[in-house]
Amino acid sequence: MRKITKRKHRNLQKKIKELLKEFQDIHEDLPNELPPYRTHQHEIVEEPGSKPTLRAPYRLSPTELADMKKEIEFLLAKGLIRPSSAIRCPSTRHNETRRKPAHVHRLPSSQQADHQEQIPNSMNR
After folding, report:
1. Strand partners of residue 104
2. φ and ψ at 104, to 5 degrees?
3. Alpha-carbon gap, residue 44 to 18, rounded angstroms
4. What end-to-end distance do the CA atoms of the chain give, in Å?
5. Could you give the CA distance from residue 118 to residue 101 in angstroms, rounded to a whole number?
6. Spatial separation of the C-alpha atoms in residues 113 and 63, rounded to whole Å
7. Helices marked H in 23-102 — which ranges?
8. Whether 4 contacts 12, CB under 8 Å
9. How far is CA 43 from CA 1, 40, 46, 103, in A?
10. Which residues contact 118 (CB under 8 A, 6 or more apart)?
11. What is the pLDDT of residues 68-123, one digit of tens each?
12. Taking phi first (over 0 means left), then psi (-120 to 50 degrees means alpha), and beta for anything else, what does residue 95 get?
């Protein structure tokens, strides 16, 4: 980790304040100052060639989802973020490759049974 001296921190604060003043029309509610000085600055070091993990996003309550959508629309309108151009794999591709054996018994009325382990039916073997 890299240590930042108090003098460098003050110089950095001045430069950031100048930038904030120059671009204040972009975002009105920016903080007025930097967080307090810390002896060690946090840094995440990635290994060369590493890729992000593939995970489903966190589930949100309807009110949290509405708040998040509102914030995203606000940031898009300000030009602070842009839509992702990442190539996505269709979610149905996994379902097409997964075949269910003929001897597996399913209850047609159970919606939840689709995502649970299937119970083999000894009568159809």
Report:
1. 120
2. -90, 130
3. 27
4. 63
5. 10
6. 29
7. 62-78, 92-97
8. yes
9. 7, 9, 10, 54
10. 100, 104, 105, 106
11. 999 999 888 877 777 876 665 555 444 444 555 555 555 555 544 555 555 555 55
12. alpha
Residue with tokens 């002896």: 39
What's the pLDDT tens digit per position in 28-62?
Answer: 665 666 667 778 777 778 888 888 777 777 888 99
Q: Which residue do the tokens 């996505």 mark?
A: 88
Q: How far apart are CA 121 and CA 125, in angstroms?
A: 7
Tokens of 115: 């995502």
Start-end of H helices in the chain: 6-22, 62-78, 92-97
State how far the Cα of 34 lies from the Cα of 17, in Å rounded to an integer: 9
Exposed, middle or buried: residue 86 (CB in 10 Å: 0-12, 13-18, 19+)?
Answer: exposed
**pTM of the full structure:** 0.31
- Only one residue has tokens 């430069």, namely 15
Distance (Å, whole) CA 100 – CA 117: 11
Residue with tokens 């995970």: 55
Pull the structure tokens for residue 71: 């914030």
